[in-house]
Structure formats: C-alpha cells, structure tokens
Amino acid sequence: MSRLKNKNILVAVTAGIAAYKVAILVRLLVKQEAQVKVIMTPDARSFVTPLTLSTLSKNSVEWKFFSDNGDWNNHVEFALWADYMIIAPCTANTLSAMANGTCNNLVLATYLSAKCPVIIAPAMDLDMYQHPTTKSNLEILEKNNVHIIPSESGELASGLVGEGRMAEPEHIVDFLDKLIEKDLPLFGKHVLISAGPTYENIDPVRFIGNYSSGKMGYSLAEASYLLGAKVTLVSGPSAEKVSHKEITVQKITSAQDMYTAMHNNFLEADITIMAAAVADYRPKEIAEQKIKKDDDTMIIELVKNPDILKSLGEIKTPDQILVGFALETNNEIAFAEKKLKKKNLDFIVLNSMRDKEAGFQKDTNKITILDRNGEQKSFETKSKKEVAFDILSYLITQKLS
Ligand code: CTP
C-alpha cells in the first residue's frame, strides 16, 4: 500500500515536448493505487494522445469546455474532485497565463477553481527558463501557494544542454508523496516499534524461542509510515519484510540485544510500541561447543531477561507515549490492567488466547485497548494490517488530538 492510495490526482497536461513523459507519470500514480483523471490543453494532444492517457488513467480525458455530444465539461467539478492537481509539463505559456489569471482553456479554468494543492513541473528551453519574465511568473505562483518542482538539468528538445527539462516522473511522484506526508496525522512523529520473537542461545546451534511471526509489529511499522511517521523497527528473527524502504530496521536476536536497541532509540521516540514476544528467561550459560546427548536428561538453568517495556516505562517523559501488548489466557482484563500500571504504560493492547482469531502466526487479531485512565475499547476480529491502523488511530484520537 502507498500513501497515494485512493487519493484523487488530477493531471493537467500542457503543450510541451515533455508531455510524452506524462504517460509514465500516470502509470506510476495508478500503480500506487491513486485515482487519476487527466485534462489537457487542446495543443497538448499533438504531443501525447488522449487515448494513451485515458487508457492508462482508466478515465476519459477532457480538453474542451464542451464534449462533442454537447455535454459541459465542468472545470469546477474536476477542481472539487481533486485532492491534488499536477500540471505537467507546465509550459512558459501556461505559467504566464496562471500568473495572470488568464482563463481561456480547460486547464486554466480548472486551476483557477482549484482549492486543493496545485503542483507544477515547468518544462521549457534553457533561455526561456532563465528569462526574467519566467522567473517573476514563478515567484507570483509561489506567492499564490503553487508548489513548484524545479526543472532539471540535461539535454533539451532544442539540442541545448541546461536547466529546463521537466522533472522525471519518479521525482514528481516523490514530490507528491512528501506533500501528502505533511498532511498526515503522524507527520513529524518518530514511532519506535519492536517485533517478532527473541532467540536465547543454548549452544552454537540451539536456542529457546517462541512462535511469534512478527506480523503485528511489521503491520504497525507499515501503518505508522503510511500515517506519516518516521519509523524505526527493532525486529527479532522474522520472515516478514518491511513494506517501505523508508522504515529503518534494526535486526537483533536476543532479549538483551533488543533491550540495547530499544534504549538506543527510545529518547528520540514520540511513540513506542512493544509488540515483540520477548523471551522472559535465557540460559545462564551459553555452551561454547555443541552440547552432546551423553545424558538421558538435561537441565538448563535459566535466568530472567530484563523487562524491556518496564525499563522504558521507568524513564519515559510525560510527552512520550508508551504502548505494550498483553497476551493472556484467563482474567484477561485484570491482568492487562495490572501490567499497564506496573510498567507505567499509556496504553496496553490485549489479545486473549481464548480468541481463536488472535495470537502467534495468525493473520488476524482481536484486540481490546486499555488506557491509563481506565477507558477500554474492544475491536472486531480484523487482519493484523487493519488492527495496526485501529491501534494507531486510537492513539491519535486519544492522545495526539
Ligand atoms: N515485554 C518486555 N520485556 C520482557 C517481557 C515482555 O518488554 N522481558 C513486553 C512485551 O513486548 C509486551 C509486554 O511486555 O509488550 C507484555 O508481555 P507479557 O509476556 O504478556 O507480560 P509479562 O510482563 O512478561 O508477564 P507474564 O509473562 O507474567 O504474563
């Protein structure tokens, strides 16, 4: 899933040679599950066909105020539909018209009606881009809160080399992603998450572990990223992969490694969620060589691991939000409340082993969230990905709003 999913993106194409790249831009946006509509200036059709763009965007493409059958192509409706409008390429002519409020084609009329953020990707020849008039037009648009993706340097259609090329479609999508990020509820927040099991070594080839898959923690990392946060994931051994390269992953093995990694990141974190299934005990000694099966019985002495969550609760500041998980088999609410208090948490997410849909290795979960004010909310059985959004949305409304 991407941050562009279900966003309505209106792409407006004007008559520059770079218009051929808009086909790639539309494809990239659709691939990220955005809803895309395309409008054009009449001359832009000489550079890229409406048929190409309607096929790629899965929507009809308009360039006139009236369709051939006499229907009115309402520019206001396009403008109201759009969450973001991208004018690419934006020629010197369109730039000037936008700066002066000219309204003689569908793209300009839609721009004037748009209440959503408008992004332009200027494209023109080197000298046109440097011309003082172009520069002052760009300044006017910047003052009018238009987001400008600067032209890039390279070979131009004229054969000259320099600034003026339309930003590459990938860069336009990145720019849009960063703009969307700023409107997301966790923008500017750092979320630290632990996931998966820990393995406690017995000898070089054996360990004590548990069946945690890491799915809940990885889903929380993805959801935090999609809600705008900077995310650090401290993961025990898990087959899960992070969904977005922007999520920082620190792989660890044992509870003691996890303790160190969580403490190293904790001071920076606004929200910390311990979703890991930490081994409570580890072998007192780790044999240097593989243990041989000489005896009929074997006793391994175990010592207690540090309680990572409790240690974080002891140093947390009032601004930091600390969340734990509780997996219980009986007296669920009472045990969860006790853990919430003992570990100084803001929230605890309770799973009951009595729910068949919850627990290790499952794709679904059924949770109840308890908070330090004694409030609790139960959720239906959902996929772990949906549960992750439920948890974060609950934290946002209860604590951040
Ligand atoms: N946890 C932790 N460090 C540990 C054990 C648990 O940080 N050594 C965290 C888990 O990540 C989880 C929460 O504490 O968020 C609750 O874990 P759980 O095992 O259910 O509770 P315990 O405190 O270990 O209590 P008990 O096993 O007795 O139920």
Automatic annotation (TrEMBL):
Cofactor dependence = Mg(2+); FMN
- Give residue ranges for domain DNA/pantothenate metabolism flavoprotein C-terminal: 187-395
Q: Which residues form the signal peptide?
A: none
Q: In which pathway does it act?
A: Cofactor biosynthesis; coenzyme A biosynthesis; CoA from (R)-pantothenate: step 3/5; Cofactor biosynthesis; coenzyme A biosynthesis; CoA from (R)-pantothenate: step 2/5
Entry's cofactor comment:
Binds 1 FMN per subunit.
Annotated Pfam families: DFP, Flavoprotein
What is catalyzed by this enzyme?
N-[(R)-4-phosphopantothenoyl]-L-cysteine + H(+) = (R)-4'-phosphopantetheine + CO2; (R)-4'-phosphopantothenate + L-cysteine + CTP = N-[(R)-4-phosphopantothenoyl]-L-cysteine + CMP + diphosphate + H(+)
Query: Which residues lie within the region annotated Phosphopantothenoylcysteine decarboxylase?
Result: 1-190
Which key words are in the record? Answer: Decarboxylase, Flavoprotein, FMN, Ligase, Lyase, Magnesium, Membrane, Metal-binding, Multifunctional enzyme, Transmembrane, Transmembrane helix
- Return the EC number: 4.1.1.36, 6.3.2.5
Binding positions for CTP per the UniProt entry: D280, K290, P306, D307, I308, L309, F325, K339, K343
Q: Where is this region: Phosphopantothenate--cysteine ligase?
A: 191-401
UniProt family annotation: In the N-terminal section; belongs to the HFCD (homo-oligomeric flavin containing Cys decarboxylase) superfamily.
- Name listed for the protein in its UniProt record: Coenzyme A biosynthesis bifunctional protein CoaBC
What does the record give as the organism's lineage?
Bacteria, Pseudomonadati, Bacteroidota, Flavobacteriia, Flavobacteriales
Q: Which gene encodes it?
A: coaBC
